[in-house]
């Protein structure tokens, strides 16, 4: 196939809806495909400012009015199916690509199948991951009296989601794209998707902004971190991100490493609770809240850290902040959960610890503090891992190969 593919993508969000890992993925993968000679149109939810169409890096974005910007809603399902039908009647389309469940109604109605157009769906997490995350929140955050009821409600919600969204997408798509080895296993064992129907494409990112540098002196001086062993978290400050568990473990860390400082970068609805927890544990002198930093400053913030920690209890995917920290040659300690093992090879490119294993966290931090050569080795291994398998170039290339194979199989 010499000419480029005409790709119609369906996504609930886009770079015009906000800043985040998912939005950055949309921009990266589709602009990358355009740069390789393909044509991409993205059907997405209403623009926050009411715009109907926009162009960015060669990608055409069409915003469906009366839907909720960046969110699923009843109107989205009807509008996305109707507009897809209209688009196909007027334009040549070689591939329809759904980001997660965005094209669920398109699949339900068989819109692509009736026209012989191959389809792919990329999952950055599944409803099974959300179900397990809800159970983690129930176990670690809610009171015992409500746990049994909550577990049952979590199960009912998951089964409803499977019926309404998982089944239409997974049964009707010609290719299911998993973004980690763990997700591939879930598709095979939980959803019983045939292995030959699954492609694995790791989420990647541009590493140009994330390079190993010395600690930024202005931040060190501003927050009084001279001579400190800096343990860092960079995340939305919400319960599922697990920053509270790092704080809970930190009194024992400070006893072993008096120079240890916990630096928390980010903002969110849970910040007030986290600050109260710091005060209750008498950690005011050991913990620094930096607040949210702009994206162009994230690499600099990560280089402030000696060690990066992500103790999330979310099952799905791996946070791109871990990829970014590894690209900056910072050792990462993460909860052994979800897709983290795809990204981190334990004791080689980082460390995986069980949920709530505070003593293990303390031991790993102490070993890194006492052994700077190990800290450097793990950091270098981590960056090599990212450059080898988690770049935007690799992600776009593998996505392109998947789409070409789908197209060629139909022709």
List keywords for this structure.
411 residues, alpha/beta, Rossmann fold, 2 domains, eight-stranded mixed β-sheet, six-stranded parallel β-sheet, 14 strands, 16% strand, globular
Overall structural class, as computed from helix and strand content, comes to alpha/beta
Q: Would you list the SSEs in sequence order as H and E?
A: EHEEEHEHHEHHEHEHEHEHEHEHEHEHHH
Instruction: Provide the helix percentage.
Output: 40-55%
Number of strands: 14
Give structural notes:
The protein is of the alpha/beta class. The chain folds into 2 domains: 6-204 and 392-410, Glycogen Phosphorylase B (Rossmann fold, 3-Layer(aba) Sandwich), CATH 3.40.50.2000; 217-389, Glycogen Phosphorylase B (Rossmann fold). 47% of the residues lie in helices and 16% in strands. The protein is built from 16 helices and 14 strands. The chain has helices at residues 21-35, 74-90, 104-108, 111-114, 127-141, 144-172, 181-189, 217-222, 243-256, 271-280, 298-304, 320-327, 340-343, 358-370, 372-389, 392-410, and strands at 6-10, 39-45, 53-56, 59-64, 95-99, 119-123, 175-178, 198-200, 229-234, 260-265, 287-291, 307-310, 332-335, 351-353. The strands form 2 sheets. The protein has an 8-stranded mixed β-sheet with strand order 3-4-2-1-5-6-7-8, sandwiched between helices. The longest helix is centred in the middle third of the chain and has 29 residues, at 144-172. The radius of gyration is 22 Å and the shape is globular. The mean pLDDT is 92.
